[in-house]
Amino acid sequence: MMNFNIAMIPGDGIGPEVVEQTVLVLEKVGEIYNHKFNFKEALAGGCAIDEYGEPLPKKTIDICKESDAVLLGAIGGPKWDNLPGDRRPERALLGLRKALGLYANIRPAILFDQLKEACPLKPEIIGDGLDICIVRELTGGIYFGEKGRKDTELGQAAFDVEIYSEEEVRRIAKTAFDIARKRNKIVTNVDKANVLESSRLWRSVVEEVATDYPDVTLNHMYVDNASMQLVRNPKQFDVVVTTNMFGDILSDEASMITGSIGMLPSASLGEGNIGMYEPVHGSAPDIAGLDKANPMATILSAAMMLRYSFGLEKEADAIEKAVKKVLDDGYRTMDIINEGKKAVGTKEMGRLIIEALS
Ligand SMILES: NC(=O)c1ccc[n+]([C@@H]2O[C@H](COP(=O)([O-])OP(=O)(O)OC[C@H]3O[C@@H](n4cnc5c(N)ncnc54)[C@H](O)[C@@H]3O)[C@@H](O)[C@H]2O)c1
Ligand SMILES: CC(C)[C@H](C(=O)O)[C@@H](O)C(=O)O
Ligand SMILES: [Mg+2]
């Protein structure tokens, strides 16, 4: 029997609802394949502010550092929206990513055959399917550059600095090229090198890294064009590598390729051995507590955890197969519902996936 320690951070809003189902799925996988997943719960985000007065208590970082992987739901919500920037719940996410050195955020936007009718793109654009992997830089750029406020003649001004060092770009570019090698061998670098100096450095380093990957084709695209091309002709993309903020925005856009943001999982990897796994969506305050959230993005994130952090390939496959089986059987949460399909809530969707596993 293999033992794995997982730090579990449900967070706020729908976070606890989707994490609850994911833990049940992992427990079932453990039962079937004879692994022991030990969950240690930790608070981060708004719930940590309420309990401890800070979004990311040291205890939470310690629990994560002592684990083999981190499973996170979502963080934030209107209750904490009026707090100053450095005390907001979202700080916890940035702090965790930094503390664990998670510079590479992998966001695979895959349209399952079963969900073609849930995707808003036309059938001729979808063709035989869509599969894009967004590789987002996660611990640098404008999220972490100098920020502040100052008085000017035009009133108060505020600034956030976009800054990247060569090494920060090099390592994320390598991640993207390594992933592309295992896929269709095309990397599209997305930047704004026609305007931003940080993008010019970014692009030159990506080009330098590309010379080590002669088997991989490198294309460059400005972010404004890329956001249009993602909808116009998504098939041209294989791996997209981009900065922290561009990646945040483009991945929400790409989530519609999967049918819904409730379907898009992510893995955050980096310097150390601890990976963090979370859905791309947020705490969805509009549906929190209503048993309406789609738990699949989080459940698919757990599959990524099994694959990347634990090397449990067949167990990860089993989760993905179970998700597809439930979709095949016509069950849908409300975000992916279509005529003729059976509407279910968060808990029922979790139960069906567990049933499909066994
Ligand atoms: N990783 C994270 O923890 C994370 C990510 C994004 C946003 N946030 C935070 O979440 C809060 C809400 O942000 P937002 O409203 O901009 O984005 P959101 O992703 O929470 O919600 C956007 C829309 O998508 C829907 N949605 C999201 N997840 C869904 C799911 N699993 N199933 C069905 N529908 C789903 C919501 O109902 C909403 O209509 C904010 O405080 C934001 O900062 C956190
Ligand atoms: C909540 C926020 C800090 C976060 C980000 O911008 O990275 C979220 O939007 C995400 O995509 O994980
Ligand atoms: Mg986001």
Describe the protein in words.
It is a single chain. The protein is globular and about 60 Å long. Helices cover 39% and strands 22% of the residues. The chain starts with a strand and ends with a helix. It has a ten-stranded mixed beta sheet with strand order 2-1-3-12-11-4-5-10-8-9, with helices on both faces. The chain is built from twelve helices and 14 strands. It has 358 residues and is α/β, with parallel strands linked by helices. The protein has helices spanning 15-33, 46-52, 58-65, 90-99, 123-126, 166-181, 197-210, 223-232, 244-255, 296-308, 313-328, 346-357; strands at 2-11, 35-41, 69-74, 104-110, 131-137, 147-152, 155-160, 186-191, 217-222, 239-242, 265-269, 275-279, 331-332, 342-343. Residues 14, 18, 74-77, 90, 93, 261-262, 278, 281-287, 293-294, 297, 335 line the site of nicotinamide-adenine-dinucleotide.
Beta percentage is: 15-25%
Gross morphology: globular
CATH homologous superfamily label of the largest domain = Isopropylmalate Dehydrogenase
Query: Number of DSSP strands?
Result: 14
| Sequence of secondary-structure elements | EHEHHEHEHEEEHEHEHEHEEHHEEH
What's the end-to-end separation, in Å? Answer: 19 Å
Give the radius of gyration. Answer: 20 Å
The number of distinct structural domains comes to 2
- Ligand names: nicotinamide-adenine-dinucleotide, 3-isopropylmalic acid, magnesium ion
Helical run tally: 12
Helix content: 25-40%
- Write down the CATH topology of the largest domain: Isopropylmalate Dehydrogenase
Name the CATH architecture of the largest domain.
3-Layer(aba) Sandwich
Please identify the top-level CATH class of the largest domain.
Alpha Beta
Instruction: Give, in spatial order, the strands making up the sheet with the most strands.
Output: 2-1-3-12-11-4-5-10-8-9
Largest sheet, if any? Answer: 10 strands, mixed
Arithmetic mean pLDDT: 98
Low-confidence stretches: none
Secondary-structure class:
alpha/beta
